[in-house]
Amino acid sequence: MTIPLLWATPPSPSPSKRGLTLEVRASAPAKVILFGEHFVVYNQPALVLAVDKRVQVSARLREDQHIHIRSSNLGLSAIFTEDHFQPQRRGKEAHRRLEPIRIATQKILDISGEKVGVEIEISSRIPVAAGLGSSAAVSAAVAASVSRLLNLQISKEKIFDITLEAERFIHRTPSGIDPAISTYGGLILFQKDRGVTPLEIDVDLPLVVGDTQLKRSTGDMVAEVGKRREQCPSVIDPVLKAGAEIVQSAIQALKNGDLPELGELMDINQGLLSAVGVSNESLERIIYAARNAGALGAKLTGAGGGGCMIALCPEERLEDVAQAIREVGGTAFLARKTDDGVRVEAT
Ligand code: PMV
């Protein structure tokens, strides 16, 4: 009598029996760049603030070795097997948006050495492709949730590295500012060759974030600035230097709690961003609406070309400014600083 192979080899113990946790949730914050976007790509300093909108990620184990990623906001879902990508819908877009998440997941699986699969579910309150760092926040939260799922202790530095790796797939030459803020939270001074300097400045920044609702690619906008700089380096390089001066003055204004000065610096920074070619009519329209409604200063935030702007406001003008942005066709929400970077929420 032959014994069926199924009985000859005892099944390997399931991940749960090996003491691995079954489900972990983690979150990471959105960000606004207060000063220095684009210039940061050329090793100038930038100031970036984590804000109170978060992406939530839940990770669960699968007993096969597949990575299944679902994003309810994007309406995208796909299964990655060792040599196959199976999108449920909109294949090209699913690959572009979900591949960085696979990269972050796979990095953690590689570190752990576990031969398991993972089920990732993303739900986000951060608008995508709008300059608010949603993709980096997702990758950071994925790295945190999957590592806890596998009982792996990893440092924030490691989460930053993995998030930066995932961002490279999307933006080609990211400065690292988005991975830094979604990992560490708070208020950060960031420079490529100096890394992250957390700024412990106790100042409340009442902000309105306005969204043009125009989607754009950060990589393309960075490439546009690169082209302009190649064409006229003697004009653009002093603009980058002026951006660095603004950052130094802004740190002083933050320390002094001088919001009118900060607002003025934002307006000047917006002028420089126009000069390097990343502002446009839809951004200028909501920026001017905000200024006319009483903002202390306003500028685009992130890559520009659409996406979002920020307006610094006296407390009593926040609602007026948000309303003024909506009246000229944007959407708007109020934002405050959050000190919490990526964190595990529950297991
Ligand atoms: O638009 P976002 O959120 O991807 O911000 C990008 C910031 C840039 O300075 C334009 C690019 C970078 O990698 O720093």
Helix content: 40-55%
Q: What separation lies between the terminal Cα atoms? A: 48 Å
Q: How many DSSP-defined strands?
A: 13
User: What would the principal axes of the Cα set say about the shape?
Assistant: globular
Radius of gyration: 22 Å
Q: How do the SSEs run, as a string of H and E?
A: HEEEEEHEHHHEEEHHHHEEHEE
Q: What molecules are bound to this protein?
A: (3R)-3-hydroxy-3-methyl-5-(phosphonooxy)pentanoic acid
Low-confidence stretches: 1-14
Main β-sheet description: 9 strands, mixed
Structural class: alpha+beta
What is the average of the pLDDT values? 91
Percentage of residues in DSSP E strands = 15-25%
Number of alpha- plus pi-helical segments: 10
